[in-house]
Amino acid sequence: MSLVAVVIVLFLVTYVVPQVAHVFAGSKRALPLLTVLMIGMSNFVRSYGWLMLIAIIAAVLTARLALSNALFRQKFDAAWLNLPILGRLARSYNAARFANTLAMLSGAGVPILKALQAAAETLSNQALRADAQDALVLVREGAPLASALAQKKRFPPLLAMFARLGEQTGQLPVMLGRAAKQLSTEVQRRAMQLATLLEPLLIVAMGMVVMLIVLAVLMPIIQLNQLVK
Q1: What's the domain count of the chain?
Q2: Residue 147 lies inside a defined structural domain of this protein
Q3: DSSP secondary structure of 9-45
């Protein structure tokens, strides 16, 4: 839907607005300010649109190249986790995958160190993966899993809490599975809330843009009709 709206806006700016400018080019009457601004924007897009496209492609390629560097990627992922809404989603999503993998492997009898190593490799966020590797080192040195996870503040506290309950009751796979389920439910709920919030905002924003363009086209026509009368 957003792609269709962008196409409509580009069509109006690059085709409809120039047609209006051509019609009123010979008129000695001053055009409305909104129309003048839209004509200027249209001329800019028509003249430099290809440069803007090249700049966008170059920015995307540069970002991909930068993210291929392990150190930069880890710093970027760490910064991403600090974002107000998206960061919490990424944190919970990765923690759910980690807990689910760890629950399945430990429940199947895989040694905890090997299970931790495999679970760490499922993390798409490199900062959390580094934390999981650090937790693996702590467990290898004799620390309880819950204690090792609790020291890594980027993991949700819920994960360490369920791990502690699992270690105390001897049901670590079950408790990790419950943690994964609860974290997954939280991710789905927050993602739905975000989508519910963003969709109407996007519709309103695109509607306002289209309305401004239509007004820029109609205002000189209305002005001309008033002069004729």
Answers
A1: 2
A2: yes
A3: HHHIIIIIHHHHHHHTTT--SPPPHHHHHHHHHHHHH
